[in-house]
DNA sequence: AAAATAAGTAAAGCTCGCTTTACACCTCGG
DNA sequence: CCGAGGTGTAAAGCGAGCTTTACTTATTTT
């Protein structure tokens, strides 16, 4: 699974700290998500998608045949 | 957050064991999700939604102002 | 009546999601 | 030149997500 967080964030000229604040997690969490260190929880994924005005499926990309 | 797993499963006359198998988790996991003991991970949510032919947002219901 | 199928509960154990703290590197404005 | 803002890494710690095993209860089938 990959995600478009960094991409969407840059598009809108938002810093990691701003996004972290807006979705109520630490900056470390945003960094870890962007760098693919781990996956967001369902609730966090929802808050991020909502923040960008998109659906979860538009922000988080699930590859075919993914475990 | 609530979900429509039990509802969708009954609609389609699928047992917990069948669903568990299809999305590659144990039956305990399905029971726990249905009874709200905890939330699915993003990947599992995606597999379940896909199994039902729906989006994550259609299966998992996020209430307003949810943490 | 016995057996099979479906649903539920409980508890121990491991890994992953997220936090906290602290430090490093770059770039840009004053 | 120096400090501030933005991004990155590292490591310890806690709780959530999921597994495994085992037992219970109800309904259906033979």
What kind of sheet is the major sheet of chain A? 2 strands, antiparallel
Give the overall pLDDT of chain A as a whole number. Answer: 94
The largest sheet of chain A has its strands arranged as: 1-2
How many helices of chain A does DSSP assign? 5
Proportion of residues in β-strands of chain A: 5-15%
Oligomer: homodimer
- CATH second-level architecture of chain A: Orthogonal Bundle
The amount of helix of chain A comes to 55-70%
Q: Give the largest interface pair and sizes.
A: A-B, 16 and 16 residues
CATH class of chain A: Mainly Alpha
Class inferred from helices and paired strands of chain A: mainly alpha
Number of extended strands of chain A = 2
Say which CATH homologous superfamily of chain A is assigned. Answer: lambda repressor-like DNA-binding domains
- Shape field of chain A: globular
Distance between the termini of chain A: 9 Å
Total number of domains of chain A: 1
CATH topology-level name of chain A: 434 Repressor (Amino-terminal Domain)
Topology pattern of chain A, helix = H, strand = E: EHHHHHE
Regions of chain A with pLDDT < 50 over 5+ consecutive residues?
none
């Amino acid at each position: 699974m990959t995600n478009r967080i960094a991409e969407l964030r840059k598009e809108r000229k938002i810093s990691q700290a701003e996004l972290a604040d807006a979705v109520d997690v630490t900056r470390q969490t945003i960094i870890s998500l962007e760098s693919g260190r781990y996956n967001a929880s369902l609730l966090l994924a929802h808050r991020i998608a909502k923040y960008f005005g998109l659906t979860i499926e538009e922000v988080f990309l699930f590859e075919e045949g993914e475990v």
